[in-house]
Amino acid sequence: MTRLAFACLLCFSSTAAFAESRVTIQPKTARPGDAVLVVVTGTNELPHGRADGKPLHFFRAKNGYQALFAVPLNEDSASLVVQVDGTKRRIAVRAVDFPETDVVVEDEYANPPPAERARIDEDNKAILAAVGKDDTGPQFSRAFKRPRGEVTSKFGEWRTFNDGHRSQHLGLDVFAREGSRVAAVNAGTVTLVRDTFLAGNVVVIAHGNGIATGYFHLSEIDVQEGDSVAQGQVIGRAGQTGRTTGPHLHLAVRVPGGFIDPATFFRLPIAPAAPAYARRTLRPAR
Ligand SMILES: [Zn+2]
Fold this sequence. Notes:
Layout: H1 2-18, E1 22-26, E2 29-30, E3 35-41, E4 49-51, E5 54-55, E6 59-61, E7 64-70, E8 79-84, E9 87-93, E10 100-103, H2 107-110, H3 114-132, E11 151-153, E12 158-161, E13 166-168, E14 172-175, E15 181-183, E16 188-195, E17 201-208, E18 211-218, E19 220-221, E20 228-229, E21 234-237, E22 248-255, E23 258-260, H4 262-267
Parallel strand pairs: 2-9, 10-12
Antiparallel strand pairs: 1-3, 3-7, 4-5, 4-8, 6-7, 8-9, 11-14, 12-13, 14-22, 15-21, 16-17, 16-20, 17-18, 18-22, 19-21, 22-23
This protein binds zinc ion.
């Protein structure tokens, strides 16, 4: 009986190895600032592909491979081409008018003094370098987990500070009490711990495959650069450091191509395969 069951499984898996691979893309219609998930099933071989001309970074997933890419915020064409091995797909891009809001903050944050502008430039460079410092394979083996809490400000809105400086919101704001725990949304390596002028105390975690998350305005930080963190591990405490109107967590998510809307990212069925050491290996019966 056992021997028969093994035989059937082996027969099934060898059929699967020769099955036609299938490419699916979500969402079918994307907006600038959305993350797009490319899923390839029915293959055991690492696919190769490009989205909008840029290489896709595939990771092993349940039943095949997955890759993520960002629709750039300045994308103005009506569609993008995704090419995977011999398959070519086109996804529609729908323009979006992000809302405009006025925000009142202390004047030094709306109109930073010249001495602080150099610091702001250095901070931005450090954050961009930290989210881009991510050429490892996937360090995660589970789906990404959205932080709990009510959304207080969405991705992409344009903010005018004290009737002056205007900037676009490149993250998701989630209400969090001062001092409440902030957890890593997935496993990864801490690539930045920094006290910045506008984003306050910042932690950036690189998850591999060009995916990184940033946690801004923290009151305390519990990790150091180079630390490996597990999903759900407390990395610091929420606060209101930097340019804020109250305590909250600003979560930034970057995938290959740029920062994307975390709200749509967490809804994608990202399903990485368990790491090799955790995978059950079927051995043929002797
Ligand atoms: Zn924010």
